[in-house]
Amino acid sequence: MSSRQRRNDRERDGPGSGRGEESYQAFDLPKAPLTFVMHAREGLQGAIDLSVNGLPWRQKDDLTNSLAGDRHYAIETDYAAKSRVIGSRLPTGRDNVVAKFRVGQGTGGNVSSGILKKPASKPPFLDAVFNPEKAAGGTDPDTEEQLREKIPTQHITFDRAVSLQDYADLALSCPGISKAKSGWRWMHNRQYVVLAVAGSSGGDVSPMP
Predict the structure, then answer these.
(1) 3-state secondary structure of 84
(2) Are 83 and 75 in contact (CB under 8 A)?
(3) Which CATH number fits the domain that encloses residue 96?
(4) Virtual torsion, Cα 159, 163, 167, 169, nearest 10 deg
(5) How far apart are CA 42 and CA 96, in angstroms?
């Protein structure tokens, strides 16, 4: 996330008014791209807090198993990185849907050292924080064209590597990887697979697992 995005990373907006007679009512977020963060139990989720009539709603991957009375919502993001929230069944009210969210993701988050000074939480004993090293690992979402190339590869491998080509295909399915080549190498009387990758536009891929 860039320093400019970091200063404006918390946005508060009333996406709109709920209409109880409408199922799966959706609201576009006014700013993009929405930041996504990893939660221990829920996995990757949008950095957004949604409340309706002052009550918090819970973010779900989808609304397949949500009932009309559940305070659940889901997030949809298109290829242009624009997101919208969809409620399972919103109560009727004027400007009663309020979202507090964070924007900024991708390579813009690979900021220099000393830029990040806002902690995710601030215990009473914490005076200040900063990042001593340059942030790394941020990659931009795949474009529609990149997805067209990667999705067939993912179906070929089914997340398993058997042949040398499988290793290269799996690498190409990872965000930020534009080229991959695999080969055999003998070390200490054992045969290993060696994988060489290159990042998109010369990007650094060393932080990737």
Answers:
(1) strand
(2) yes
(3) 2.60.40
(4) -70
(5) 26
